[in-house]
Design a protein that fits this description.
alpha+beta; OB fold (Dihydrolipoamide Acetyltransferase, E2P); 2 domains; five-stranded mixed β-barrel; four-stranded mixed beta sheet; 6 helices; 18% helix; flat
Length: 287
C-alpha cells in the first residue's frame, strides 16, 4: 500500500510565511502598506492580500479561510475597507468617469424615480427623474403622475446621451439630460470602442459632410446617426418638443444608411489599430 503524509491541521503548508514573524503581527504590520490606496502595487492570482475580518473583498478577489486572496493579476486598490484588484491585462477596458464628461448609455432598469444606465463603467450609472426634461420643455417639480409615466420617457434598452453630474457615496455616476442636446437617441447605430481611444475634445458632437452626426461618448460608446438640422435641435421652427421621447425612427433614405454604415466601419477599423478617435482623423479617414 502507498502511504501519504498526514494532512496538516494548520494552513502553514499552503500559505506564505516569513521566518520569525507571527502571522497576526505580520497582518497588522503590513496590511496598510501592502494594500495602499494608489494602485501602485502588483499582485498575482492566489496571493494573500489581507484578512476578511478587517477588510471587505471587492472585484478581483475572493475569500478563503477568512483571508482575502487575489483572483486576477493586477494592481491592488483600496477604498476605506474595500479591497479590489484591477486586472492589468484585459481586452475590455472600463471607463473611469469624471464630472462633466459626455457619455452615451443604455437603460438597463427602471426603478422608483430613477433609471439604471449601462455606461461602460464598473457599476451602472443613475439617472434621476428630477434630472431630465419633461416633454415640451416644461420646467416644474416632478409629480407622482410623472413617476407613473417613467416608461414613456425611458424604458429598458433605450439609448441616451447624458452628462456626468456628480457621484454617489458608493462611486456610482449621477447623470442628467437637462439640455436639448441630451436625451433619447434615435435614427442611428451604436459603435463600442475602448474608452482610452476617445480623447477629450472641445465638442463631442460632430457633423461630417456626408450628412452623418457623431456623438463621441467618453465612455467608449459612439452614436452614429443621420444629420439633424440646427433649428430642429434648438427648438426653433420645425422642432417637435413632444417627440423627444419617441421610440419611432424617422424615414432614412438609402444614401444616408450607406453613409452611416461607412462611418461605423471606419470607426471599427481605426479602433482595431488603436488609433485615437478625433474629429480630424475621422474626417480624413472618411475622405
Amino acid at each position: 500500500f502507498t502511504s501519504f503524509p498526514a494532512k496538516l491541521d494548520d494552513n502553514y503548508s499552503y500559505t506564505r510565511h516569513h521566518p520569525g514573524i507571527q502571522d497576526d503581527d505580520l497582518m497588522d504590520l503590513d496590511a496598510d502598506d501592502l494594500l495602499g490606496t494608489d494602485g501602485s502595487r502588483l499582485t498575482c492570482p492566489g496571493e494573500l492580500l489581507t484578512s476578511s475580518q478587517a477588510y471587505m473583498r471587492g472585484h478581483g478577489t475572493y475569500v478563503d479561510n477568512e483571508e482575502v486572496i487575489a483572483s486576477v493579476a493586477g494592481t491592488i486598490e483600496r477604498v476605506n475597507k474595500l479591497v479590489t484588484v484591477r486586472a492589468i491585462s484585459s481586452r475590455h477596458v472600463l471607463y473611469n468617469p469624471e464630472v462633466g464628461d459626455l457619455v452615451v448609455g443604455r437603460i438597463t432598469e427602471v426603478q422608483p424615480r430613477r433609471w439604471k444606465v449601462d455606461a461602460n463603467s464598473r457599476q451602472d450609472a443613475v439617472l434621476m427623474l428630477s434630472s431630465i426634461n419633461l416633454p415640451g420643455g416644461v420646467q416644474r417639480r416632478k409629480l407622482e403622475s410623472d413617476e407613473l409615466q417613467m416608461r414613456t420617457f425611458f424604458e429598458e434598452g433605450d439609448l441616451l446621451v447624458a452628462e456626468v453630474q456628480a457621484f454617489f457615496s458608493d462611486g456610482a455616476m449621477s447623470l442628467h439630460t437637462r439640455s436639448l442636446k441630451y436625451g433619447k437617441l434615435r435614427n442611428g447605430q451604436l459603435v463600442t470602442v475602448s474608452p482610452i481611444l476617445v480623447r477629450r475634445l472641445k465638442s463631442h458632437f460632430l457633423t461630417l459632410p456626408c450628412g452623418v452626426d457623431l456623438i463621441l461618448g467618453l465612455n467608449g460608446y459612439i452614436w452614429v446617426s443621420k444629420h439633424v438640422k440646427e433649428s430642429e435641435q434648438e427648438g426653433e421652427e420645425g422642432f417637435d418638443a413632444e417627440a423627444v421621447y419617441s421610440n419611432q425612427n424617422d424615414e432614412i433614405d438609402a444614401s444616408t444608411r450607406t453613409a452611416i454604415s461607412r462611418v461605423t466601419n471606419i470607426i471599427r477599423v481605426l479602433a482595431s489599430h488603436f488609433l485615437p478617435l478625433t474629429d480630424t482623423l475621422l474626417l480624413q479617414a472618411y475622405e
